[in-house]
Amino acid sequence: MSDLYERTLARLRDAAIFAADKPDESPESTARALWLAAAGTPRAVTRTAGALPELPEAQARSLDALLARRVAGEPLAYLIGRQEFMGHEFLTAPGALIPRRETELLGRATADLARACADRQGSVRILDLCTGSGNLAVALALEEPRSFVWASDLEASAVALAAQNVALHGLGERVTLLQGDLFGALDQSSPSPLPFDLVVCNPPYIPTHNAKSMPVEVGGFEPHAAFDGGDFGLSILFRLVAEAPRHLTPDGWLCFELGAGQGRLIEKRLAGQGSFGEIRSVMDHVGTVRALLARTIGVT
Q: CB 43: neighbour CB atoms within 10 A?
């Protein structure tokens, strides 16, 4: 391996901080991802295997600049403009939260429900709220070809990025993008797509006092509105529980991510709401509830 690569790797090992919520990023994988980005062939950090090209002088300078930004705390996914999610590559940009591995727990559980619904009735209608880069909406559409997905976000920058990812994966005929505040975004859709078989959401759920002290890689670069969930991190979660039933079919599912330690409280909220019957917990590898799936009570 070249001296330039070894110097890059050494600096990452000595000076960069690697977050626990991005397990695919290591000094080695980051060095390869930055190298490919400098070469003009960016790939997600999970897709950097193989021989690296030689870098001429101008590209070597680009690598040094990227390296300096990464060491300063700028997220790798923003520097290279790519991130993998549920086995698919997505475009990333500072206007939307970077897709996380833990959200794949929600994505795969929702994909299973979508598949079962499509098996029963031939198709499935999904609403993805707080879509961000569109990673959940696009991944669900790819996982279940019989799905039709509507996806919304409050931020115009996120909707624009989601549109790029919809186009990247050729899903313009099955994924519709809207801008607005949670279910209010549906007001601009005519005819109305209601009701939905599935509502899925990766909402902001970090308490404001914690959001203010997030590591620089998150708090200094990712959009605060995408992770700041209010005083106790529960404002959007409570709204989902209250508002989702009237947008779902009987026996429809509300599926959402939540923070560590929030599971028991939100389960009680769901049970007390009166519109949900079955409630399923999705746990991570250490047994922490990281997503909830709640089924509306069907017609009897």
A: 18
